[in-house]
Amino acid sequence: MEEIKIFGEKVYIRVITDEDTGLIVKWRNQENIRKYFFFREKFTEDIHRNWMETKVNTGKVVQFIVCLIDGNIPIGSTYLRDINKDSKTAEYGVFIGEESARGKGIGKEILKLTLEYAWEKLGLEKIYARAISTNEASVNSFLKSGFKQEEVVRNVSCSDGKKVDMVFLSICKENYQH
Predict the structure, then answer these.
(1) How many CA atoms lie less than 13 Å away from 105 in the CB half-sphere?
(2) How far apart, in whole angstroms, are the C-alpha atoms of residue 42 and residue 30?
(3) Are 13 and 78 in contact (CB under 8 A)?
(4) β-bridge pairing 126-132 and 89-96
(5) CB 24 within 8 A of CB 50
(6) Which residues contact 66 (CB under 8 A, 6 or more apart)?
């Protein structure tokens, strides 16, 4: 994939590379990150490299590393997965791996940069998001950013066997307010 950097006010996003594997593994194995994913197994370099090979490198996923503009410091990741060019849809995901960057309002900016890429570069019309219902910060952030709650799916099985309620949300390009 070509070199892409998209700048906001506090952060920029750049295309993920294999060199980011160590960071992704470190971030995904933090309990306060893992508990909000449906896949909760210990994350390994092999799992990540398989994801890169079968999803990112095939165009099924566009994944970015989020960096602070001040200091050029990687703090997390954002992605569009299950990209469907026919229906012009994809699923959005994000996590802030560096604890020092959480709770600073950066998530909304990350979402804005990723959505603008989805609309302008990929030609998508609708973006979905899934969140575990107990992740209130994430659900509220989506709602404040214009996503509409479509449904709550009860008792979804996570990879560790635990059951959670999943909030399913979406936003359409025509309803998106910058």
Answers:
(1) 4
(2) 9
(3) yes
(4) parallel
(5) no
(6) 11, 12, 13, 74, 75, 76, 77, 78, 94, 96, 106, 110
Q: Within the chain, how many helices (H) and strands (E) appear?
A: 5, 8
Residue 157, SS3 per DSSP? strand
Instruction: Tell me the two tokens of residue 159.
Output: 């990879």
Closest CA to 14 of 27, 24, 29, 1: 1
Q: Which residues are CB-contacts of 92 (< 8 A; sequence separation ≥ 6)?
A: 78, 79, 80, 111, 114, 115, 118, 127, 128, 129
Longest dimension (CA), the chain: 42
* pTM, entire model: 0.91
Q: State the SS3 of 20-89.
A: HHHHHHHHHCCHHHHCCCCCCCCCCHHHHHHHHHHHHCCCCCEEEEEEECCCCEEEEEEEEEEEECCCCE
Tokens describing residue 101: 């960057």
5: left (phi over 0), alpha (psi -120 to 50) or beta: beta
**pLDDT digit string (tens) for the chain, length 178 residues:** 567 899 999 999 999 999 999 999 999 898 888 888 888 788 899 999 999 999 999 999 999 999 999 888 999 999 999 999 999 999 999 999 999 998 888 998 999 999 999 999 999 999 999 999 999 988 998 999 999 999 999 999 988 899 999 999 999 999 887 6
